[in-house]
């Protein structure tokens, strides 16, 4: 899966990935190739609105051997000379990026890729990309706030399941409102799910969980996340884990590229409602599979964008 979206983390759980096989030296990085470094490019990268100011940060090319899996990070300066409000985010994940998480951070710039652990290396997650091309435009009265020279951490879960070595690349473009735009409501991000997964061998298993949302939250986008054993995922507005009376807000039968569902106008839940998450798997392996961070483990998560 590869991915999409912005915001302030409300619930912090572990995301995908671990440095199973790492070609990145976490101690001595002086011999890393310049081509491995993250870069910042100009405002001509084709933003959502071609006439709007934007900034793009990019990663790679970063070589990855056959069968290798690892999570690496870079920290880059977005290059905006003054504080700005972000109105849209677009990501590009070519081959080799299972997914990418984008963070705002005040950590120092670190352009050479280094091994990192999901949600444990500092910063505030603002977007998760799971598809080759992903784009999210915020509602007109909401925005993601950037300080001058905002530092951005890119966390890339790399995996090479091809028969040849590959170069991993990714990029994120931020489109800004005009400098004199009035203040907007800050965008927030909910990442939560079910970590009590036990999938017996040679059978189908369905798990369901219920997750609360802040009262009055205006939800404008939803997506889900499983690994390769996932055959179906759905998110419903509901009053409990056993409330099945509403149609799905989000459904996915493609574990690798789940859709990002957007809502206009934003969805506002009743005070006694939350989000019910359902994931179905078929474990065709000989062994039981449980929750974990590696690609061979499984997950059942939802991501909600709101303000």
Automatic annotation (TrEMBL):
GO terms for molecular function: oxidoreductase activity, acting on paired donors, with incorporation or reduction of molecular oxygen, reduced ascorbate as one donor, and incorporation of one atom of oxygen. Coiled coil: none annotated. SUPFAM superfamilies: PHM/PNGase F. The keyword Disulfide bond applies. Pfam families: Cu2_monoox_C. The keyword Disulfide bond applies. Residues 21-56 are annotated as: Disordered. InterPro entries: Cu2_ascorb_mOase-like_C (IPR014784), Cu2_monoox_C (IPR024548), PHM/PNGase_F_dom_sf (IPR008977). Residues 21-32 have a biased composition (Polar residues). Residues 214-307 form the Copper type II ascorbate-dependent monooxygenase C-terminal domain. Keywords: Disulfide bond. This is Copper type II ascorbate-dependent monooxygenase C-terminal domain-containing protein. It comes from Sandaracinus amylolyticus. The lineage of its organism: Bacteria, Pseudomonadati, Myxococcota, Polyangia, Polyangiales.
